[in-house]
Write a structure and sequence with these properties.
The structure is a single chain. The chain has 158 residues and is α+β, with helices and mostly antiparallel strands. The chain has a single domain (9-140), classed as Roll (Thiol Ester Dehydrase, Chain A), CATH 3.10.129. The protein has helices at 26-36, 41-44, 46-49, 61-74, 144-149; strands at 17-23, 82-90, 99-110, 115-124, 127-137. The chain has a 5-stranded antiparallel sheet with strand order 1-3-4-5-2, covered by helices on one side. β4 and β5 (127-137) form a beta hairpin.
């Protein structure tokens, strides 16, 4: 596999796995709040967050889960993968400074439909913080001869 190409569907086998790790910084939380519009005080206001059951600020659940996307796009199946669905269960909080390890494992390959089901797990210091399942479509690259046949044709409309 060329690192920039990702895996082709026929190369994926049940049990294959890959991981990606990211330390969640203060900046990540602030930028995620700005990008998403989720300005919940639990994430951005330490004084408020100390009065909650978490006794301090925690990262957005979806910020934590986004590390799964990085594992899928960067590792398995790899670049160009299209996300079709994701179930998530948030098991424990993630705090600024925690390193989230996302592991994706091939659960089922549906070659005829060009779909792959992955189990997805995020951990911090070995503790599961998020788990679930994703359905993805690996990149379907065209060969040079396929691209040549399209020369001069208008682009398809979506």
């Amino acid at each position: 596999m060329n690192k920039l190409d990702g895996y082709d569907i026929e190369d994926l086998k049940e049990g294959m796995s890959a991981s990606f790790a990211k330390t969640i910084s203060e900046a990540d939380i602030v930028l995620f709040a700005a990008a998403s519009g989720d300005n919940n005080a639990l994430h951005i206001n330490e004084e408020f967050a100390r009065t909650t059951q978490f006794n301090g600020r925690i990262a957005h659940g979806m910020l934590t889960a986004s590390v799964i996307s990085a594992a899928i796009a960067g590792r398995l199946p790899g670049p160009g993968t299209v996300y079709l669905g994701q179930s998530l269960r948030f098991r424990a909080p993630v705090r600024p400074g925690d390193t989230v390890h996302a592991t994706v494992t091939v659960k089922h390959v549906m070659s005829e439909r060009q779909r792959v089901t992955l189990t997805t797990v995020c951990t911090v210091q070995g503790r599961v913080v998020v788990d679930g399942e994703a359905v993805v479509m690996p990149t379907q690259r065209r060969t040079e001869s396929d691209r040549g046949m399209d020369a001069g044709k208008p682009a398809a409309r979506i």
